[in-house]
Amino acid sequence: MGHLIIARLGNLPVEIRNTDGILGGGCIVGWLPIIKEESSETGKTGFVNFKNAVYHEAFKAFLENIVLYSHIGSNTKCGDGQYRVLWPFVLILSANYEEFMTMALLRGLKSNFPCPICLVPRDSQWDLSQSFPLRTENDTKNLLIKAMNEKNLEKRDKILKERSIRPIENAFWSINLTDIHLAISYDCLHSDDNSLWEDHFFPLFKLLIKDIGRKSTVAVDNW
């Protein structure tokens, strides 16, 4: 099993991009493996780390063709016939929270620092009056190097927990001009329309409408 990797131009007309077909003008360029999870392994740190390591090793293979060009540029003939030096990099990562945890190699919602963008402590997420330092690729790299140089496993894990990171090298670090923590973007479709609303708010909304009678129920738009 695997997740499709689809490459697509970002400026395709909407009638192509939003077609009923799954590709929308794109092309399948690879697969990311999905590791089958046995019930006996669910939630175990070692197995979760293994799944994350497989994801990033597979993504490294996918990215390897652009790694060099992200550092030295690629002399490319553009649509107007002129040659320009282009540097590929990751501008935006659009995903849900669980996918962000895999991409950024963080420990998740119950960790001390669950945000993939900043270092807000878990117990302070409610307090919007405070500001917290942003995560950066360099800080994460340095902390990982410090942890992996520690021979004592308990001390190593303690260092990693300081920033809620996993003991794995991130595939995105190989791409120049890219900081995954800056690229992560809040996605309304993932987080609101197809998550909070569809899975949580809308079911509760339907229950509340049902309680106040059929007249109110039929007044709600079908969409």
Task: Provide tags for this entry.
alpha+beta, two-stranded antiparallel ribbon, 11% strand, two-stranded antiparallel sheet
Short structural description:
The chain is of the alpha+beta class. The protein has 8 helices and 6 strands, in the order βαβαβββααααβαα.
Shape: globular
How much helicity do the residues have? Answer: 40-55%
Poorly predicted runs are none
Number of helices: 8
H/E element string?
EHEHEEEHHHHEHH
Number of strands: 6
Average pLDDT: 87
| Main beta-sheet annotation | 2 strands, antiparallel
Beta-sheet strand percentage? 5-15%
Write a structural description.
42% of the residues lie in helices and 11% in strands. It is globular. It is of the alpha+beta class and 223 residues long.
